[in-house]
Amino acid sequence: MSKSALVTGASRGIGLGIATCLAEQGYGLTISARDPERLESVAADLSGAGAKEVVVAAADMADPESANRIVDAHAERFGTLHALILNAGVGTAGTIGEFPMRRFDKTVDVNVKTPFALLQRALPLLRAAAADDPGRGAKVVALASITGVYAESGLAVYGATKAALISLAETLNAEESGNGVTATAIAPAYVNTDMAAWIHDRIPPESMIEVADLVELVDALLKMSSKAVVPKLVVSRAATDGYRA
Q1: Which of 27, 150, 158, 190 is catalytic?
Q2: The 3-state secondary structure of 119-147, one letter per residue
Q3: CA-CA distance, 178 to 194, in Å (whole number)?
């Protein structure tokens, strides 16, 4: 049976790593990010890596209305959806006392509101895929953060949005795992991507989690049966106490 996946934030970093892994397994892919030219280049690479077909759906995750366009583009080509990878997100830091509300609103839109809209729009496609393959089901993987599990000073808003994403995944399991649709939130500490460059002066990139580590986890989750539910996975950095980014 031909499988398909939708990956947000697929143009670089963790999203690109996951999309490449799926392409190598022959998945049909819908990829999304803000830069259409970059996406077209990535699509060509994914096709070369083995993707059955690649649909490009450029969109800004700060606009929740974009969710409909992305999912509809996938539905038009593939009809069902075996894996929804909610990877796109925005990192932001600042204390509660001084955090600008405009930046708060954007962070909530990108990290919570649009992922929720994507999941809601994609749910019929996920259910259909699970019905076609009841043994494997359909999977949702959300890239959250360790700060959504363990609070950290200066990361209140970011952590709150990632905690919401974890809760969303757990609630989806309560509502839909009986239909074969299961979700996992992966909550890593700092990963060596462009998004973590702002803290390289305090945490060197060579001490961060590698993108390949998270790709391996996602690959394993997608291969599990529909009978197993993994609500969340916390991934900490070596040489830390395990409770901080």
Answers
A1: 158
A2: HHHHHHHHHHHHHHCCCCCEEEEEECCHH
A3: 38
- Residue 191 has, within 13 A of its CA and on its CB side, a CA count of 26
How close are the terminal C-alpha atoms of the chain, in Å? 39
Question: 10 Å Cβ neighbour count for 14?
Answer: 27
Using the CB atoms, write b or e for 147-173: b if 16+ within 10 Å. Answer: bbbbebeebbbbbbbbbbbbbbbbebb
Active site annotation includes 158: yes
Decide if 222 contacts 83 (C-beta within 8 A): yes
Q: Supply the pLDDT for residue 65.
A: 94
Which H or E run includes 162?
helix 156-176
Average pLDDT, the chain: 97
Whole-model pTM over 0.90: yes
Does 1 have pLDDT greater than 80? no
- % helix / strand / coil in the chain, to the nearest 5? 50, 15, 35
| One-letter amino acid of 97 | G
Specify whether the CB–CB gap between 53 and 29 falls below 8 A. yes
Could you give the CA distance from residue 245 to residue 242 in angstroms, rounded to a whole number?
8
Per the CB < 8 A criterion, the answer to whether 57 and 28 are in contact is: no
- The pLDDT tens digits for 130-174 are 999 999 999 999 999 999 999 999 999 999 999 999 999 999 999
